[in-house]
Amino acid sequence: MIFPSISVRAPLNPVSPLILKPPPKPSSFRPVRCSNHQQNPDTIDKSVKLSTHLINPIIVAIEVVNKKNNEKSRGDEERRRGCFSQMGSQQMLGLCGFGYGVQGFRCFPWLALNFHMANNLRLDPSMIQVVQNIGNLPMVAKPLFGILSDAFYIGGAHRVPYIFVGGLLQILSWGALSLIPAAGQALASLMLCVLLSNLGASITEVAQDALVAEYGQKHRRTGLQTYAFMALAGGGILGNLFGGCLLQKMQPNTMFRAFVILLLAQVAVCMITKEDSLGLPQPADQNLVKKSIFEGVREQCSNLMITISEDSISHPLAWAVASIAMVPILSAPIFCYQTQCLCLDPSTIGMSRVVSQLMLLSATVLYNQFWKRIPMRKLIGTVQLLYASSLLLDLVLVRQINLSLGIPNEVFALCFSGFAETIAQFKLLPFSVLFASLCPSGCEGSLTSFLASAFCLSSILSGVFGAGLASLIGITSGDYSSLPVGILIQFLAALVPLWWIHLVPMVEPAAEKEKKKGMSKRSRRNRRIGRVALESFSAYRREREFE
Predict the structure, then answer these.
(1) Is residue 324's pLDDT more than 90?
(2) Which residue has the higher pLDDT, 90 or 382?
(3) Phi/psi class of residue 516: alpha, beta or left (left: φ > 0; alpha: ψ in -120 to 50)?
(4) Closest Cα to residue 444, out of 105, 91, 230, 162?
(5) CA atoms of 462 and 322, how far apart (whole Å)
C-alpha cells in the first residue's frame, strides 16, 4: 500500500505549536495565542490562519536532520568496520597466500614420487600415468566437499576448519610414506597414500577457493583470484627449484618428511586464525538448531543446479571442460623419454618446471594488468591456438631438431619443456575470474568446488586417453619410436575446440552483474513503490493547497 510510506513523524494536519511559525504580530503588546487554545474562531485573524503550505518546511527539516544523523552513524560504523576490515584483510592475505603457496609446493614431493616410481619401482610410462590419474579421483568429489562447507558449520565456521582437516589428511599420507618404508614399495599401499593425500588436498582447495570467492564478494575485491594464482605459482617455483636441487642429494623419504613439516605449519596457521575476524557472515543460532545437515545439503544441491543451469555459466564451462578432456596428454611418456633416453638430470627437469612456473607467474601479472581488458573469447581463442602450437615443442625435442639448430637438449628442455603445461594452467585463470564474478552469495563453496571437480575430471579423462593412446601406438619404457605420432595427434585434438569457441562470452559480465546487483528485483520494486508514493504524496499536497 502507498499510505504507510507517508511519514508519520510529520503529519499533514499541523497540531504541534512548537514547530509552527507564529503569526505576525500587529502590535508588540498583543499576546500570542497558540493554535490549540480554545478561543472564538471569529476572533482569529485571517492572516494567522494555518495553511498546508507550511508542511513542506516541517518535512524537509525533519528529513534533513534524520538524514544527517543517519549519515553520521553510518560514517562511524564504516570507520569501525574499516579498522576491522583492514585487520581481517591482512589475515586473509596471509592465510590464503600461505595456503595456496603450500598447495603449489606439492610439486616438491610429487617430483620425488615420480622419480621413485620410474627409477626404483621400474614402472612403465603408461602405468605411471594411470597411477597419477587414479590418484586424482578424490578431486572429482569436490562438489560434495563444497556443499558440506556451505551447509555444515564446524564451531561456527565453515571455511578454516575444512582447511585444517585437509591439512591433517595430507600429513597422514605423506607422513606414512616418509616414516614407513614398506608403504612406498608396494603399489597398493602407495596408491592408498596417494589417494589420501589428494583427498586432503581437494578438501583444502575447495575451502580456500570458496573463502576467496566469498571474501571477494563480501568486501568487493575482484583481484583475489589473481593473487591466489600468484601464490600458487610462487609455491610451484620454490617446490620445483628445491626438488630439482635436492633430489640428487636426498632420498624421496626425506623430501616427503620435509613437506610434512610445511603442512604442520599450515595447520598451525589455521589454528590461530579465527574465521569471524575475516568479516564473513556468521550463521544464526536458530538456523544451526532448526536446519539439519540433510536439509542444508539438499538446499545447496538445489541452488547449485539452478546456478550451473544458467547459460552464462554452463556454456563457457562446457567449452573449458571439453577443451581439456579431448586432448590426450602424454606427460608420463615424455617424462620417461627425457630421463631414460636423453638422460637428463633431475635438476634440469626441476629447473624446467621452475621456468614454467615463472612464466605462469608472469602471465598472471600481465593478465591482471593488461590482458583482462581483452575480450574473453579473443583471449581464450589465442591461448588455445598457442597451446596447440606449444605441443609441437616436444616433437622438436624427440626428433632432435634442436641439435641441428645448435641448441643442446638440456637448454631446450629447460626453456620449453613445460611451456605447454604453463599455457594449459593459465587458460583456467579467465574462467576462474568469470565464474567467481557470477557466483551467487551463499553458493561459493558449491560452485567453485563443482568447477574444480569438472576441470579435474576433464584432466583425468585426458590422462586416461593419453595412457590408452600410448598403449595403442606401442609406447613402452624401451621403445619410443611412436612418440612423434602421439604428439601430432595431441596437436590436432587441441585445435578441435576452436570450432565452438562461440560458447565463450565476448566479455566478462562482471560490470553488468554489478549494475544488476545494484538494481535487483527487490531494489527495483522498492524504487518503483517509493516513486509512486512520492508522486501520490505530491499530488495530495497540491490538492490540499488548492482547497
Answers:
(1) yes
(2) 382
(3) alpha
(4) 162
(5) 10
Q: How many CB atoms lie within 10 A of CB 249?
A: 7
Helix, coil or strand: residue 191 = helix
The x, y and z cell numbers of residue 220, run together, are: 568487493
183: CB partners within 8 A, 6+ apart: 176, 177, 189, 190, 193
Please check the confidence at residue 531 and state whether its pLDDT lies above 70.
Answer: no
pLDDT digits (tens, 9 = 90+) for 247-298: 878 888 899 999 999 999 999 988 888 877 776 666 655 444 445 666 767 7
Length of the chain: 547
Q: Running DSSP on this structure, what letter comes out for residue 311? A: H
What type of residue is 475?
I
For 111-129, write each residue's pLDDT tens digit. Answer: 888 888 877 887 777 788 7
How much of the chain is in helix, strand and coil states, percent to nearest 5?
A: 75, 0, 20
- Return d(Cα 433, Cα 223) in angstroms, integer: 8
Residue 377: how many other CB atoms lie within 10 Å:
17
Distance CA 168, CA 5 (A): 56
H or E element at residue 534: helix 521-546
| pLDDT (mean) for 345-369 | 84
- Residue 73, CA distances (Å) to 67, 127, 379 in order: 10, 66, 46
Indicate left, alpha or beta for 482 from its phi (over 0: left) and psi (-120 to 50: alpha): alpha
Q: What percent of the chain has pLDDT over 70?
A: 72
Q: Is the pLDDT of residue 15 over 50?
A: no
Q: Are 436 and 225 in contact (CB under 8 A)?
A: yes
**Among residues 420, 415, 450, 414, which one has the least CA distance to residue 432?**
450
| Nine cell digits for residue 312 | 552464462
In sequence order, which residues have a C-beta less than 8 Å from that of residue 481 and are 6 or more positions away?
A: 474
Q: From the CB of residue 182, how many other CB atoms can be counted at a distance below 10 Å?
A: 9
Predicted model pTM: 0.62
Residue with the three cell numbers 623419504: 253
Which cell numbers hold the place of 432?
576462474
Amino acid at 496: V
Can you tell me the distance from the alpha carbon of 64 to that of 67, in angstroms, rounded to the nearest whole number? 5
Contact status, residue 467 vs residue 126, Cβ threshold 8 Å: yes
Give dist(CA 497, CA 500) in Å, integer. Answer: 6
Per-residue pLDDT at 143:
80
Is-contact 505 434, C-beta < 8 A? yes
| Cβ neighbours around 89 below 10 Å, total | 15
88 — pLDDT class (breaks 50, 70, 90): low
Return d(Cα 531, Cα 537) in angstroms, integer.
10
Q: What is the DSSP string of 346-362?
A: HHHHHHHHHHHHHHHHH
Number of helices (H) and strands (E), helices first, in the chain? 23, 0
- Single-letter amino acid, residue 106: R
> 26-35, 310-319, 437-446, 492-501 — which is least confidently predicted?
26-35
Cell reading at 241: 627449484
Q: How far apart are CA 125 and CA 340, in angstroms?
A: 11
Q: Cell numbers of 212, please?
A: 576467496
